[in-house]
Design goal:
Elements: H1 8-16, H2 38-58, H3 66-69, E1 85-89, E2 91-92, E3 98-102, E4 108-121, E5 124-133, E6 139-143, E7 157-159, E8 162-165, E9 168-172
Antiparallel strand pairs: 1-9, 2-4, 3-4, 4-5, 5-6, 6-7, 8-9
Length: about 220
C-alpha cells in the first residue's frame, strides 16, 4: 500500500514538469481583479492537461495500474471556467490549529489550518479552509461539492492554492484534480474535512475518472 503520498506526488511532478508557472497571473485584468491574458491562460491550461495525460499513460510514477494505462485515452475535465479562477483575501487562522485528516485507508495525516477564503458560487456565499502541510509547507485545499459522487469523484478533489502575498491567495478551481485513490485503491488519500464540504457545485477542473470512457474538454 502506497500510503501518505497521494496528495504530494502530483504536486511535485507538476512543478518538475514546469506546469505551475504557466498558470500564474500575468497580463491585463479580469473581473475578479486577477491579472490574466485569457487566451494564453486557456492555452496553458489545455497544455497542462495534455501533459498530465502523458504522465498518466507513460510515466512510471503514474497512479494508473498497468492494465488501465494500456487503454488510457485521457482524463475528463470541465471546460475552462473563468468565473472560478479567484484571487481572494486570506483570512488567516491565528491559532494555527493542527487538523488531523482521515485517509481513504484509515490512516491519519496532520495539516495546519492556514486560514479561510470566502467567495460566491451562483450567488451563494461559500467558505473554504486552506491547510498547510506541516512537513513541506505546501498549501492544500481538499474539498467536496454538490457534484461529488455524480459528475466528480465521490471522495472529493484537491487544489493547491498559490499565496500571492501575505494576505492574498489564488484559488483556481480549473486546476482541481482527483486524488490518486480515484484511480487505484493502492493509494492512501486525505479526505476533505467536513468544514470543506460545499453545498454548491464547483463545475471546473477534473471530472470523475472512468477506465473505459473519457469526455473531451468543451472549450
Amino acid at each position: 500500500m502506497k500510503k501518505g503520498v497521494a496528495m504530494s506526488i502530483w504536486g511535485k511532478v507538476r512543478r518538475a514538469l514546469g506546469l505551475e508557472p504557466t498558470l500564474r497571473p500575468r497580463e491585463s485584468t479580469d473581473e475578479v481583479g486577477s491579472p490574466i491574458d485569457e487566451e494564453a491562460y486557456t492555452a496553458a491550461l489545455l497544455a497542462n492537461r495534455a501533459e498530465k495525460d502523458r504522465f498518466f499513460k507513460e510515466d512510471p510514477r503514474s497512479p494508473l495500474p498497468p492494465d488501465v494505462r494500456a487503454t488510457f485515452q485521457g482524463l475528463a475535465y470541465y471546460p475552462p471556467n473563468r468565473t472560478l479562477r479567484l484571487v481572494l483575501p486570506l483570512e488567516r487562522d491565528p491559532s494555527g490549529e493542527r487538523i488531523v485528516m482521515q485517509t481513504s485507508t484509515g490512516d491519519e495525516q496532520v495539516y495546519e489550518r492556514l486560514g479561510y477564503v470566502s467567495f460566491e458560487v451562483d450567488g451563494e456565499p461559500t467558505r473554504l479552509a486552506i491547510y498547510r502541510d506541516v512537513r513541506s509547507g505546501a498549501l492544500f485545499l481538499p474539498f467536496r461539492d454538490a457534484t461529488s459522487g455524480s459528475e466528480t469523484y465521490g471522495a472529493g478533489r484537491y487544489l493547491e492554492p498559490v499565496l500571492l502575498d501575505d494576505n492574498t491567495v489564488l484559488v483556481d478551481f480549473n486546476l482541481a484534480y482527483n486524488p490518486f485513490c480515484a484511480y487505484s485503491d493502492q493509494w492512501s488519500c486525505p479526505l476533505p474535512p467536513m468544514e470543506n464540504w460545499l453545498r454548491v457545485p464547483i463545475r471546473a477542473g477534473e471530472k470523475a475518472f472512468s477506465a473505459h470512457t473519457t469526455q473531451p474538454d468543451e472549450v
